[in-house]
Each structure stands twice: as structure tokens, then as C-alpha cells.
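Hi Y.,

Following your request, here is the sequence exactly as I used it, all 187 residues.
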Amino acid sequence: MAQAYQDGPDHYLAPPDPTDPELAAFAAVAPLINRGWKTQHPRWDVLELQTPDGMAGLEYTTGRLDPEKELTTLQARWYMWGGPKNSYSRWYATASTNTPVPLVKAITLSVSDPAPLPRWKDSMLRSLREHAQLTPVTPPPPPVPTPLDVQRLAARRPPALTARSVPRWTTTTLPPAVLAGRSGPRR
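Below is the corresponding structure, written out as C-alpha cells. Let me know if you'd prefer a different format.
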């Protein structure tokens, strides 16, 4: 892909193989079918697939399309969407006829990947939280220190202060009996 990009738009936006463009497109659709996406609403010139829970879909339009409309409207060769219907969190992506099929395949592979994604619960929209399968992740406990770790820490620790007796002034009043025994000769 990087070399095609350096060569220019004629290479990375090249039309599909004219001998069988639909067969090349199937390489991008196959990962969805293999991961359980089902065909929906059969229509002439449109292949539509959806996830079993209805939270994501793909439409692939066959036949000739207007290249200008593909780039400026939603009437593109590839139309992908995800998220709950009528929600602000719904997303969509389009790809034109000249989008390389390996790029579309990379998108379909990532969209249909069942591996969980880390998310902060509080940063998810409420409309998405009710559709998500949330699993709390607790960090692993810190590793147990080895004897060498303990030795290194002990070497860096400053020496402990030793306890000394320090004379202090007092503000307490002694009882009269103690004062009588202390009194010396009067002057």
C-alpha cells in the first residue's frame, strides 16, 4: 500500500480487475461471513450483511456507479455502519469503487474482530453502555520483591536515628510533700 501511495492516485485508487471485480470484492466480505454476519434484505445490486445483534452492517453495491457521487454522497460501493439506531454514537464509513480491496478487507477484519477493546466505562456514552458487554479489569498485583530487591532497598535506606535522652523543661507543679523534702537550708 505504501508503494502504491507513493506512485500516486492512479495506483492506490485503481479500479478493480475488469475481468471479475466482484470476485475481488468477496475477499473483503468473506471475513464478515466467517465471523457470523448474516445476509439481510436481499435486493437487486446490493449485498447487505449485519451482525447477529444488529449493531453493525455492511452494504456492497454491485454494477456501475457514478465516481463523482461515490466521493460526495453515501452512494458508494462500500457502506459500513455501526452502533445503535437513532443514536449520536452511530458511525459510518464509505469506500469508493477505486478503494483497494485489501484496504477494505483490513477494515472489515478490524470491525468484525471479536477481541475485546479496553474502554473507560465513564467515557462511554450511556446509549452504548447498555449494549456493551463490560468486563471490569483489575490490574495485576505488584510483583513480590526478590531477596536482591530487598537488599538493594536496604542499602539505599538512610541509617535510622538512635534514641537519646534529651533533658527537657517541665511546666508541671510538684506536690507539696516532694517540695518539703527538697527544700534545703534557708538563706
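The first strand starts at residue 38 and ends at 43.

Thanks again,
Q.
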